[in-house]
Specification:
Blueprint: H1 6-22, H2 28-51, H3 57-62, E1 65-68, E2 76-79, E3 86-89, H4 91-94, H5 99-114, H6 117-124, H7 130-154, H8 169-176, H9 187-194, H10 202-205, H11 248-265, H12 268-273, H13 276-286, H14 293-303, E4 308-311, E5 327-330, E6 334-341, H15 348-361, E7 367-374, E8 378-384, H16 403-410, E9 419-424, E10 439-444, E11 459-462
Parallel strand pairs: 1-3, 6-7, 6-9, 9-10, 10-11
Antiparallel strand pairs: 2-3, 4-5, 7-8
C-alpha cells in the first residue's frame, strides 16, 4: 500500500510538522523542513503517477515547476502565466488530506488544463463578473470530478479518492435544486444549467467547505507574511486562479504548450495506453483556431470592391479645403443571400440575433439582403433593408433540403455577384448543384462536422 511506502512515511512526517505549526510553534526552520519534505513528496508523486502506465498526470507534473506558498489560501493550483508553468500549493492545507485524496487533488488540477478550462473561463466571463466566475468554477469542477470518479471506476485507479466536499454533478443538482442531471458532461452543460439560478444555502445541501475558520496572523515568530493553515482558512479545491489576465488566446496558447510538452514526453507505448477521451482532447486543443462566421463574413465583404461615384455631400479627400471639388463614395450595392434552414434547429430568437449581427457588419456598405426560409422546400423569400424588416417568426419547420435554395439563386442572374450564407443544422442532402454566387458560407448549428454535403462548394463553420 502507498500509505506504508516511502511516500506515505514522508506524508506522515509533514502532517506531524503541520500539527506543530497549528499548535503555534512556528519557526523558519520548521517551515523550511516542511518545504523540503513537500518538494520531495511531489517528486515521489511524479514517479508514482508515471509508473501508472495508463495515467498521463505524471507527465504533466514533469513539465511544471513546484512552488510552496505558505501564504496561499488555495490548496493547489497551476500558474500558466510563467514558463515553465508552476504547480503551486500550500502544504499546510494540501497535506491535511489523505494520500489518495492528495493524488486526487493533483489530478483534479491537471484535468482542468487538459479540458482547457483556463481558456473557457475567460471566454465565458469576459467582463470578470464574480458571480459568473464562481459558477464557472462549480461547473468546471463538476466536469473534472465526474471525469476522475469515472476513471476510478473504469480504469481501476484505486490510488485516487474523492475528498469530502468535492463538487460533482450530484452536488450541483442538490445545490441548485436541478433534479436529475447527466453525469460526466462538459463544463458548458453544467454552466448553462446553473448560470441563471440561485443556489440554496450551503448548510442545507451538505456541500460544506473543506475547512472553516478565520484567517489570523501568526505571532510566534518574526515574519512579514501570513501563514495560512487549515485552522485559519476556508480552503477549497474549487478555488482556481490560473493567473492569465483576460486574454483567451494567451490562455489557449499556454494550455496547448503544456499539453503538448506532456504528450511529447510519452513514448508510443505510453500514448497507446492513454484513455481515448484524453487523446481526443489533445486533438481538440491542437485544432487550428477557427474564426467565427461573423469574422469570415467581414473578410468576404472586404473582398468586394465598391465602385465610386462623385458626390457634393463629401469633401475631396486629396484637397479637403476645396469646397468646389466633389468627394467620392461607394456606389456598388453589396448583395447578401441569407438562407435559413427552418426545419427547427435554429430558433426564432437566434435567427433575429443572426440577422441583426449581419446588419451591423454591413452598416457601412450599401447593401441588399435577401432572406430565404426553407425546410424541405422554400417557404418564404423577402428583402430586408433594415432590422425592422426582419420577420420574427419563420415559416416551415419540416424536413431539410438545400437544393431548393441553390436552384432558386442559380436561376436568377441577380445573385451572380452575391454572397450566400446558409444557416442550418447540417442534416440534409449529400449532393447539391454548385451555387452560382460570388462566395458561399455554411454556418452549421451543433458543429461543422454535422453538414451532410459531400461537396459544400464553400467554407463550413460552426454556429
Amino acid at each position: 500500500m502507498m500509505e506504508n511506502s516511502d511516500i506515505g512515511v514522508l506524508l506522515c512526517s509533514i502532517k506531524e510538522d503541520i500539527q506543530i505549526v497549528e499548535g503555534g510553534e512556528v519557526s523558519e526552520s520548521l517551515l523550511s523542513g516542511v518545504r523540503t519534505d513537500f518538494l520531495e513528496l511531489i517528486e515521489l508523486i511524479k514517479l508514482f503517477l508515471i509508473s501508472e502506465r495508463d495515467s498521463y498526470y505524471g507527465y504533466f507534473l514533469m513539465n511544471m515547476q513546484v512552488r510552496v506558498n505558505f501564504c496561499g489560501n488555495s490548496i493547489a493550483g497551476i500558474r500558466l502565466n510563467e514558463f515553465p508553468p508552476v504547480f503551486e500549493s500550500n502544504p499546510l492545507l494540501l497535506c491535511k488530506f489523505k494520500l489518495k485524496e492528495i493524488l486526487y487533488i493533483v489530478c483534479h488540477e491537471i484535468d482542468h488544463i487538459v479540458l482547457n478550462h483556463p481558456t473557457e473561463m475567460i471566454r465565458s466571463n469576459p467582463t470578470g463578473d464574480r458571480e459568473i466566475f464562481h459558477k464557472f468554477n462549480l461547473a468546471a469542477d463538476a466536469a473534472v470530478n465526474d471525469r476522475i470518479n469515472a476513471e476510478i471506476r473504469t480504469e481501476k485507479h484505486m490510488f485516487l479518492q474523492q475528498p469530502e466536499g468535492a463538487i460533482t454533478s450530484k452536488v450541483l443538482s442538490d445545490m441548485f435544486q436541478l433534479g436529475k442531471i447527466e453525469a460526466k458532461k462538459d463544463y458548458l452543460y453544467y454552466f448553462n444549467l446553473i448560470r441563471d439560478k440561485e443556489s440554496v444555502e450551503e448548510a442545507t445541501t451538505g456541500q460544506a467547505r473543506m475547512m472553516e475558520g478565520k484567517k489570523r496572523k501568526t505571532g510566534h515568530f518574526d515574519c512579514d507574511y501570513e501563514i495560512i493553515t487549515a485552522e485559519n482558512c476556508a480552503g477549497n479545491i474549487d478555488d482556481h486562479d490560473w493567473s492569465l489576465g483576460g486574454d483567451a488566446e494567451d490562455a489557449a496558447a499556454a494550455v496547448k504548450e503544456l499539453v503538448n510538452a506532456a504528450v511529447g514526453m510519452m513514448n508510443e507505448e505510453a500514448r497507446s495506453l492513454m484513455p481515448g477521451d484524453f487523446m481526443s482532447q489533445v486533438e481538440i486543443i491542437n485544432k487550428p483556431p477557427q474564426l467565427p462566421w461573423q469574422a469570415i463574413l467581414k473578410r468576404y465583404v472586404g473582398t468586394i470592391t465598391a465602385n465610386k461615384r462623385k458626390t457634393q455631400t463629401r469633401f475631396n479627400r486629396r484637397q479637403p479645403d476645396r469646397f468646389d471639388l466633389p468627394g467620392r463614395m461607394d456606389d456598388k450595392v453589396l448583395k447578401l443571400v441569407v438562407a435559413i434552414d427552418t426545419s427547427g434547429s435554429v430558433s426564432d430568437p437566434m435567427i433575429s440575433k443572426i440577422l441583426n449581427e449581419i446588419f451591423s457588419i454591413l452598416a457601412k456598405r450599401k447593401h441588399e439582403i435577401t432572406v430565404i426560409e426553407c425546410d424541405a422546400a422554400i417557404r418564404r423569400i423577402y428583402r430586408a433593408r433594415t432590422p425592422a424588416d426582419i420577420k420574427t417568426k419563420v415559416m416551415g419547420r419540416g424536413g431539410t433540403q438545400f437544393s431548393p435554395v441553390i436552384d432558386y439563386i442559380n436561376q436568377n442572374k441577380y445573385f451572380r455577384d452575391a454572397l450566400l450564407i446558409y444557416f442550418t443544422d447540417g442534416y440534409g442532402e449529400h449532393m447539391i448543384p454548385k451555387p452560382r454566387t460570388y462566395r458561399n458560407l455554411w454556418v452549421v448549428a451543433g458543429g461543422a462536422e454535422n453538414l451532410s454535403l459531400d461537396e459544400p462548394f464553400g467554407l463550413v463553420l460552426s454556429l
